[in-house]
Amino acid sequence: MVFSSGSKSTWTRVILPCCLITLTALLLAKQSTSYVHHRTTTDLNDDIMRTIQHTTKWEEMREKIYLTGIGNRQKKTSRRFPEYLHHQFNKLNKRSKRFAMVARIAENVTRIYGKRQINSVSPDPLPELCRMAGFNFTFKDCPESTRIRRFDGACNNLVHVNAGKAFAPYQRFFPPDFADGIQSIRQNVLGGPLPTARTVSLNILHFEHVFEPGYTAIISHFGQFLDHDLTSSGADSRECDDNNCNQSPFCMPIMIDQPDEFFDKPCMPFVRSLPSPGPDCQPGPRQQLNQVTSFLDASQVYGSSKTEADFLRDKTRGRGQLRSLRDPVSPTNRPLLPLDEEHKDCLFERVDRKCGLAGDHRAAEQPGLTALHTLFLRMHNSIASSLVNINPSWDDDRLFEEARRIVVASWQHIVYTEYLPTLLGRTSLISDGLRGHPTAQFFGYDVDVDPVISNVFAGAAFRFGHSQVPNNFSRVNQDYQPVFPPLLTIEAFFNASHVFDAANGGLNSLIRGMLVQQVAKVDGYISRGLTAHLFADLPGGEGLDLGALNVQRGRDHGLPSYNTWRQWCGLRRARNFNDLANEFESGAIIKFQRTYRHVEDIDLFVAGISERPMRGALVGPTLACIIGRQFQTLKFGDRFWYENAQGDQSFTADQLQEIRKVTMARVICDHANGMRTIQSLVFREPTSSPGAPGAERSFFRYNSRHQFPDIDGELPGFANVRVACSDDNIIPRLSLEPWRSSATFRRQSTDKGNSLKSEDGEVLLTVKKRSPWWYRVHGSGNETPLNLRQNLQLRERKRPKNNN
């Protein structure tokens, strides 16, 4: 069903002609004279064939240009161009090109004939193209065993088998807002052009940089690492440059009004996101392709296909491990990411040291991101090694898959227990059902909850973290002293030399720096290094504007304006700019009035990061709404959700309790070099005071007994002081004993649902609050599946109809 990802010639020479014949035959067989407006059958046939042939020839020509461009670029070894690094960041998977060709055929035919006319002629040919390209799965393609999560995300939902799979379109809550209804950039409410994305960035995104007291910079790095698990749109081509400012279906250059403070060129190259066939492969407006799975499955570590996962595995020793490189500059020789031999844009000081390779191609974009990839690589290999010791009879595949299951579950637990509460605050946690439970198992999985990543989340909302990026990265020693010079952000892009920079502490000094450096406030400001020097070939040289790229990306994806999303979130729709005076950070409203002609024209990205944060949260109400609802579906729509008690993929009660011990502090302690002390909640700054008498120092225990955070985002009764990494009582370790093949698993008993007891009656953990209905204590007798849509009063839970 799935053709070779690298066989472009096979696809164009064999599959495509067959598809063209099928498409033509079906169209001619069902054509209706009422829609051809007095045109002959021959005319219609000729037009359709010309449209399809033009698309095919154009795709073949673009592929030749693309390959020629690679050869020319490799000859220019003395310089890295910003647009090339941007393309590396938005790198295409080979399989994506096949689906994009189908999408362009559908788009071209739709543009000429219209969706209604094509459907009246025949509803079948475009789905036939998708079928022959291997775009969708059927239930018969799913494996017999449902215990192990597929790398590509398919068959997670055994009713809707394509829900959440990689290489599928993002979900839309509204029809895309394109000026022509198909793919061209939206216009203002008066029918004229919107302000250019560079103008928007220049006018709005240049506030004074303000930091968020009490919160650490690891929030920013972790958010990027998380985003790369969920979204990867992919750039459409490499043919756009600043010498060609013409619009096309592939290029949407950002025009630069002169004079400009930093840029002398007339435009900034912008490559459009890869198009995708719609979920049902019917004609319609442009959709965008997500190259990774929608699920929180650590695909940035393991890849989003079996081919990628197999390439990343170390199968030579039969110990279930991922490939790695022994650190050549550290006396401990702990593993680093393996070298990416194909990444030619990376800076490195020696030929034997290159950018790191991981499950996501963006792992080397900046060293803070590389550091997190390295931690989770080491975590997997450490768990796999321990499983070998307790289960010597397990083979390589079993060891790898069990280690992967534990890493993914731990990853989900950290995201929902530490990161999301810090980001969204208590109100969103409760309203969106995101709060976990310290002892109970989960019975809220619903096959009708659509987990697919939404276009608005990928194209705008979860890009808020760009406002949190500082001008530099702190580097500190084992005692958290800034003995190393900070690393400038503009010097870090795709630069592998910092990974091997032992003189300045390498990755470990950066990891420790994340734990002491304050994170920048989400306030509508993006640092100058990102709005003028992004991916510059020389630090401080002319680069790209990330703020402008984000605005243009939202328009490229056809995202409706900010006001539309306010209304979708249940917020009052603004009638004029003054209605937003209390919504934005101080001074922002004047900048919006100066930039946009009408309040209905405002782009979501710039407005979202300019909102005043909600009480106890780091983001404003619109972003909290969009992000909260996305993570809601990722929890209730994932059959492999780590707490889910139903199905053979579920963990035992004992295994689940071990996973709940995992914190980001323990991950760092165990897998970064030279970690002596750490605060137990790493997303908050360490406190110097031990707090009030009796204050809890273990975040694990505190979170198990209290509802974190409180309404103001605080942790009353908790002292986030640095403690020894060796203190397993304060920062507990995950025990793998429940995974021993011969283990006898202890079942939980209940005391009115409020405590976890051992078989001899010892109270292990007391819970003050009763769990919501979707959590049930194992063995309570009330474990039947419940209808989520009837019990949790949240909008947009059921799979939306196709509005496109």
UniProtKB/TrEMBL annotation:
Its EC number is 1.11.1.7. Coiled coil: none annotated. SUPFAM superfamilies: Heme-dependent peroxidases. GO terms for biological process: response to oxidative stress. InterPro entries: Haem_peroxidase_animal, Haem_peroxidase_sf, Haem_peroxidase_sf_animal. Keywords: Heme, Iron, Metal-binding, Oxidoreductase, Peroxidase, Signal. Residues 1-34 form the signal peptide. This is Ovoperoxidase. Residues 307-336 are annotated as: Disordered. It comes from Lytechinus variegatus. PROSITE patterns: PEROXIDASE_3. It is an enzyme of class 1 (oxidoreductase). GO terms for molecular function: heme binding; lactoperoxidase activity; metal ion binding. Heme b binds at residue 466. Gene3D superfamilies: Haem peroxidase domain superfamily, animal type. It comes from the Eukaryota. CDD domains: peroxinectin_like (cd09823). Residues 307-317 have a biased composition (Basic and acidic residues).
